[in-house]
């Protein structure tokens, strides 16, 4: 194996849904507690507290005519356009998601055929050696797809890999659960390629962990909190407090492990792109990370760009969408330029988490 070959991102794309859903959308919802009783607080107060904690003011939902594989295909087209490569030269298409295609009129998950196969069909790729498969790994799934792509490329079994994250969480959330205000839809894609270099570039290191003991079901599926809604339908449920406490303990350490695996320190990192489910949680993770380096009082104000305020939590789409916006100069005062050293990090159901250290080629 040639150690001078590195995995680099050569292009990116995204699909940001057109429906803007502000917090006011939830003013007339009836929210229930876990015990099936209606919450006593008025919705205006619930929403204000929610916004204060999560930082979310609006989120995006897909229109009724679209499903997850559709928007994955649109993000893939955007990524291919940014590179100009022939899609027939892709060795793998990896699509990270958690709920498959869910139609607006039939809220049941559809996994067959694989969403990756649907995207390949959408793109019109004929090459049978373009292997298409799905990856379900919670909100950290897209980043795990990047890690798998790096293994394929470093082993010499692939030269080009497309990794897509796509989700329509608006179709699996319980409208009677206040946590439903967190979730959003979206899709993002990157294309990775093998590149020879005399100096380290691209993916420098990665770390992945699974905590499946008492944390395995911190996120899972359950009935609506409204006992008279949904029948036997299952909705995404989260023990937010337990997830927050675990993430604060484990995610900073995972990021630190990844940075040190690349023989770097926090001072070498220009940007931290972290999965965004809760603004306060991510800010606490960042402070704890810098605290581990004895630099809790000098956290750079612009090191962790956030889109959660207007895009919400789109699960596996969060990171590739954020990267795409920054790479194309569409994020005000937040760009990724040549030579930038970035850490990607994510945590999600499982509980699964991972991190990647990445240096943009000069």
Automatic annotation (TrEMBL):
Residues 260-359 form the Beta-ketoacyl-[acyl-carrier-protein] synthase III C-terminal domain. One of its GO terms (molecular function) is 3-oxoacyl-[acyl-carrier-protein] synthase activity. Keywords: Acyltransferase, Transferase. It comes from the Bacteria. One of its GO terms (biological process) is fatty acid biosynthetic process. Residues 133-198 form the Beta-ketoacyl-[acyl-carrier-protein] synthase III N-terminal domain. InterPro entries: ACP_syn_III_C, ACP_syn_III_N, Thiolase-like. SUPFAM superfamilies: Thiolase-like. The keyword Disulfide bond does not apply. Pfam families: ACP_syn_III (PF08545), ACP_syn_III_C (PF08541). This is 3-oxoacyl-[acyl-carrier-protein] synthase-3. It comes from Chitinophaga ginsengisoli.
